[in-house]
Amino acid sequence: MRLNNILLFRDMRKYTKNPNNVIFEELLPLKLKNSVSGKGDRSKERACVHEMSIMFACFKKNEFDQSLCSEEINKFQTCSKIHQVEKYKRKQDLREGKISTGQHNLSPREVNHLLKKYPNP
Q1: Residue 55: is it exposed, middle or buried by C-beta count within 10 angstroms (0-12/13-18/19+)?
Q2: At what angle do helices 70-96 and 49-61 cross, to 10 degrees?
Q3: CA–CA gap between residue 76 and residue 72 (Å, rounded)
Q4: CB atoms closer than 10 angstroms to residue 107
Q5: What does the buried/exposed string (b/e) look like for 69-106 if buried means 16 or more CB atoms within 10 Å of the residue's CB?
Q6: Which among 79, 81, 87, 86 is positioned nearest to 51, based on CA atoms?
Q7: Which listed residue, 5, 45, 80, 117, has the most CB atoms within 10 A of its CB?
Q8: What is the pLDDT of residues 82-120, one digit of tens each?
Q9: pTM over cut 0.85
Q10: For the chain, how long is the longest CA-to-CA vector?
């Protein structure tokens, strides 16, 4: 207990009981950078996972007989075709430089394009 108080003594001066008396310390400048990294773009949700899981559940239920699961297979195939068309359309829009704001989250390339177009003063 005593060691904990000694280690936290420095930090205890910063905290107050009144939230209006909080001391603001600017550690980094409060402005946007001129670019963003593309690391967060890779963790997007995959397409047609729900349809695929339903199809595999049907396979397991019917001992992998595809003739009994034709409806689930067709649903999965149509979902994958729709996803491929949308992916191709997004790639074409990126090549042409079109930015579709408001329809989905912007990709890091689109954000970087906007930041180059409207830089920080």
Answers
A1: buried
A2: 160
A3: 6
A4: 17
A5: beebeebbeebeeeeeeeeeeeeeeeeeeeeeeeeeeb
A6: 79
A7: 80
A8: 999 988 987 888 788 777 666 667 778 778 888 888 887
A9: no
A10: 72
